[in-house]
Amino acid sequence: MAEDSFYYWQGQNLILHVRLQPKASRNEIIGVHDNQLKVRLTAPPIDGKANNALCKFIAKSFAVAPRHVELISGAHNRQKRLLIRAPQQLIKDVKPNLSTS
């Protein structure tokens, strides 16, 4: 894995480092910040709702079924690692070097 990347490949699977901002005004990918893909979601961080929404949002973004996205670490943290099984498309236009927020 490259030390300066928010993702790496493990065979056909993609491991994604994500920083989640729950309770946002809309669902969106903001860009790359501190080697993590920053994602804003409207779901609250209660009873796993934000984690479930994140998996569904990432599944849609990478054109896979939600069952092909697995939260492998960070269930109770804003910093998460996701495994995406055989993504069918990659996200485009990810903005690097997002200023600190």
Task: Characterise the protein shown here.
The structure is a single chain. The chain has 101 residues and is mainly beta. 13% of the residues lie in helices and 35% in strands. It has a domain at 12-78: Conserved Hypothetical Protein Mth637, Chain: A. The protein contains one helix and six strands. Strands 1, 2, 3, 4, 5 and 6 form a six-stranded mixed sheet that branches. The longest helix has 13 residues, at 49-61. It is globular, with a radius of gyration of 13 Å. The N and C termini lie far apart (26 Å). 27% of the residues are buried.
* Estimated structural class: mainly beta
Distance separating the two termini: 26 Å
Order of helices and strands: EEEEHEE
Q: Quote the average pLDDT.
A: 89
Query: From the 3D coordinates, which CATH architecture of the domain at 12-78 would you assign?
Result: 2-Layer Sandwich
Helix content: 10-25%
Question: What name does CATH use for the topology of the domain at 12-78?
Answer: Conserved Hypothetical Protein Mth637, Chain: A
CATH class of the domain at 12-78: Alpha Beta
Query: What is the 3D shape?
Result: globular
